[in-house]
Amino acid sequence: MHHYHSKKRIPEKCVHRTWLLKNAKRYNRIRHEKHLDRGDFDDIHASDIRQTKPVYRREPCRTLDDQFSSHTRNRSDKRQRSNLFEKDTARLRCAEGTFRVHNIYGDGNCMFRAISYILWQNEDEHRYLRSMVVQHIKDNWYEYGPFVMAEWNISDRHIYGNYMSMVGTFASELECIVAAKMYCMNLSIYRKISDRNELKRVIYNHVSWHYETARLLFTGNSDSGHYDVLLPD
Fold this sequence. Notes:
Order of helices and strands: HHEEHHHHHEEEE
GO molecular function: cysteine-type deubiquitinase activity
Pfam families: OTU
Helix content: 25-40%
Domain OTU: 99-233
């Protein structure tokens, strides 16, 4: 990893990423997700777990949320998708504590939906969050441009902005880290250990001990993937 800082069912697999710009509209049309390679962890075993220091959750700083409080969010006629997944009560353990899984809808927007749920307790702000993250990366291209190039092979910020702004475009861990950092959160991404109710942390971006930690569960292998939210039990 680079050091930057109606009912519908969840698709079981997400489409393998090929050439980005050529296939972006196609991915949006079929409502599947593209996967950023994070390696295969299907064969993780308990012996591979390395103990780490516990990370204590604290109240997040909502600086940017306050800054953009003028953004109007019409939720009066929206249902929280969490109601669809109340049946998921699995408890997963790791060095940082015990967590339960909150399922996120899989339509290519799962990362932004997950962070939206952590910030605002619903997934419906994923479009707003996506636009904020993309604009922040474009405005700070001198900092993020090299990582965008490494992640997406895109060297122009306007091309990147047009691509990542499309709803349904799967976001990489770069956008995930930027989203968490913008809203003053640390970020931990976990994998579930095969056949065990245990987690292995595979990505950790620490910003401050004073910040809350957003915890996501990533499932799938190098050809497919999906983000869900981990909530403290």
